[in-house]
Amino acid sequence: MNRKLDRKKLLPLLMFVAGLLFLLIFEITRSDAEFSRENFRTASNYSADAAVKVGADRPADLFLPSSYSKEIAVPLLIDLHGYTGSGQSQAAYSFLQSAANTRGVAYLAPDGLKDSSGNRFWNASSACCNFGGSKVSDVDYISELIKEVSSKVTIDQSRIYLFGHSNGHFMSYKFVCSTDSVIAAVAGLAGAMDNDPNACNKLPMNVLHIHGTNDATIAYQGGAIFGNKYPSADQTVAQWEKINSCNKSAETEIDLLQSMQGSETSAITFTCAKKSLELWRINGGVHVPVLDEKFALRTLDWLLAHRK
Q1: Paired strand residues for 208
Q2: How many domains does the chain have?
Q3: Does residue 272 have a cis bond before it (omega within 30 degrees)?
Q4: Global pTM?
Q5: 10 Å Cβ neighbour count for 239?
Q6: Which CATH number covers residue 281?
Q7: Torsion, Cα of 272, 208, 149, 136 (10° steps)
Q8: Greater model confidence, 207 or 16
Q9: 1 part of a folded domain
Q10: Are 199 and 269 in contact (CB under 8 A)?
């Protein structure tokens, strides 16, 4: 952030960050009356024995599945945290680290840089969440991570995947919209594309968008942060519907989250001429829903079903 900012300009930013932290804490701790958090095992129990250091000036741990052998190429999953989070917190939240081990997938959860408030972020879109105007290119950073990982271990280059939550979801879209992507498929929770459709290179991509209708931080209906707009979940999906040349084909109800009763999620699938597209609308879902291993495996299996 520019140190010359006066107090009038700084105060809204501080208020936003404080409000965002409050919402994150509130949504993490809220739960249904019949739900007990003790029913779920934390993903941080995953063993770190197989970790490989990558990332030079911004290091990250690459976790290899227990079944890994250099003679057999494995898929790679990159898991991107939300604003104020970290790779470690994302691994514990998403359960994708343990799911990756179960499915024989290499797993990487890197850290965004810290802004002047000490919060990690990704430079992802005009709305979220580069509030200090940093010039960092996280597209370049992630690209270099993929190259380094591929030079150190045997990665199936047709099966490299991105998942992100919130700011990390914005970043996943930023990456595939800014590169002739090496990514086979992208999935994310509670984020959006850039509000300007021209910010995307419009190359077809396998996309799974997941969003809660009661998200109070990145609203399902769209909104703005400091006057910078982001599209609704439906508008984001509509952009990919156009890019992938799709038509809506079916809507079914699925039980995605153990923390919510019944089949709380509407799975909306599309028939596409180019790649695949799906929207999982969590009816009543919040910005930080309580995730679990079932969610992680279902999401990862969707990704793994697609190759570049």
Answers
A1: 187, 278
A2: 1
A3: no
A4: 0.87
A5: 19
A6: 3.40.50.1820
A7: 110
A8: 207
A9: no
A10: no
